[in-house]
Design goal:
mainly alpha; 4 helices; globular
Length: 69
């Protein structure tokens, strides 16, 4: 999952600290089948990260916390 999200996270987070935090969020073990993990879960995670990145860079309160992602 992390390997699939790396290019997306690099585009979303330009600050190295924010990028490192995003990497840490996705380093947990994620047990799934290939049919779900291949596209559906990756897409959901990418959309959550995009929404969080927008909140971080617009300096609005972050409503999407690490536990949700």
């Amino acid at each position: 999952l992390m390997w699939a999200l790396m290019p997306i996270l690099k585009k979303l987070y330009k600050d190295k600290k924010d990028l490192a935090e995003a990497y840490q969020r996705h380093l947990l073990f994620f047990n799934t089948q290939i049919s779900w993990g291949g596209g559906t879960i990756t897409g959901i995670m990418a959309s959550l990260e995009a929404a969080r990145a927008q909140e971080v860079y617009m300096e609005t309160p972050v409503t999407i916390d690490d536990d949700l992602i």
